[in-house]
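re: ur question from yesterday

yeah so i grabbed the chain u mentioned. its 224 aa long if i counted rite. heres the sequnce exactly as i have it in my notes:
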Amino acid sequence: MCESLSLCSVLSPAYTRDNTFDSILAGGSRKVSDPFDIGAGHIHPSKAMDPGLVYDMKTRDYIIFLCNIGYNKNQINMLVLPSTGTDTSCSHVHQTNSNINYPSITVSNLQSTMTIKRTVRNVGRKTTAIYFVSIVKPHGVEVLIWPRILIFSCFKEELSYFVTLKPLKKSQGRYDFGEIVWSDGFHKVRSPLVVLVNNSNDDDDDDDDPSVFASNITAASSSI
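ran it thru and got these structure tokens back, copy pasting raw so excuse formatting
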């Protein structure tokens, strides 16, 4: 288990079906819910005791996020507990939110191919574990993940993987939804993937980094 779940960027495992195994509906409507309605789903407390993998956000991840929304060093120092080696300054070079180690991935402005990094830590009962990935692609978006297999051991508790997103359609002005699931056969660690393709005015390749942010979607180990 994670020593302190409050330090891990993961909440309790969640489920996305109701007690009749049908889709959960958005409140007060007959619309099938999406990640903006329910995040990763409803909490499954018993499975939270053994989530399998967690996405640890470091203090620096939070500081980068605060810098990007306009906080300065003095304001950040009022929020962050002082500790040796913690840099609370904001870089003069913009650091994108895309690689902040949040469990879910939301891309609000996908104009061209981009790659995002995530790091997971094995907190399962077995120090040796092999996780395989499965993907549900958002409509009109090619999703490639490397590596597709994560092999954990007592010497490698943390491993990183990369998610490459490529738009395959012209912008339709809407968010499309998918998911990334890592499984060792017992745990299923599910992360919502939310993408808005925005290339309707992009006649040429655009090398600018698209705007990416860590959304409020709660991603967790999930029974699917």
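noticed a couple things. The chain has three helices and 13 strands. also The CA atoms of residues 58 and 76 lie 15 Å apart.
anyway ttyl
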